[in-house]
Amino acid sequence: MSAANQHEVSNTLSSIVPSFTPSESPESAAVKAIIGSLSLIEHVEGGYFAVTDADSTKIPSPYPATPLSQRTIDLVNGLPADFDYAFRQLSTTIFYYLTPNRPLGSFHRNRSRIIHSLHRGRGRYVLIHPDGRIESFIVGPNIERGEKLQWVVEGGVWKASFLLPDSDDQSSSDGLLISETVVPGFEYADHEFLSNERLVEILPESKVNVVKWLVKH
What we know:
Blueprint: H1 3-14, H2 29-37, E1 41-42, E2 48-54, E3 58-60, H3 70-75, E4 87-89, E5 92-98, E6 104-110, E7 113-120, E8 122-128, E9 134-139, E10 150-153, E11 158-164, E12 176-183, E13 191-193, H4 196-202, H5 205-211
Antiparallel strand pairs: 1-2, 2-5, 3-4, 5-12, 6-11, 6-13, 7-10, 7-12, 8-9, 8-11
Organism: Hypocrea virens (strain Gv29-8 / FGSC 10586) (Gliocladium virens)
Domain DUF985: 33-194
Protein name: DUF985 domain-containing protein
């Protein structure tokens, strides 16, 4: 790796630090208003979500007829009674919302690719690619500074996210609200949380120590 690339990786890792601490305290009035207006509920990954679209078109499943992770299936109390491994919906879309009290979306991966679109707020995404490369970027409205309005995470890539203040000179946020469209459509059978055991298999210790707080416990 060149000296320039090493410096870039170092800068990426140094930015992966929490801005907000998860809390059991009630959400603020502004956050509660958004949760209520969009009928959001708590997500097993962290944050809140609501399904906004599920295409009725069914396509043959491109995936194995087994779950990617039994842990995920157990966490969501099993798959729907009518789930058929042979098919997937063409696409599904959700709102996803990180808040100061639920500021973290834990590392997970999906078999399907996911297209993300920003609605409001700022956050940082951390990706671990199959080759072990870590990618990190800010999503937010300041496109002049390189913040992203849309981004795609391919199937098989580990993804985590966490809330940032609304601007660099502030310490507060009313949350990060995005949409996610999954193609083929999302199913918990195609979902897996990253474990600490798996993390140490795919990253060297120096990088594990930086990102392990993003692993679901």
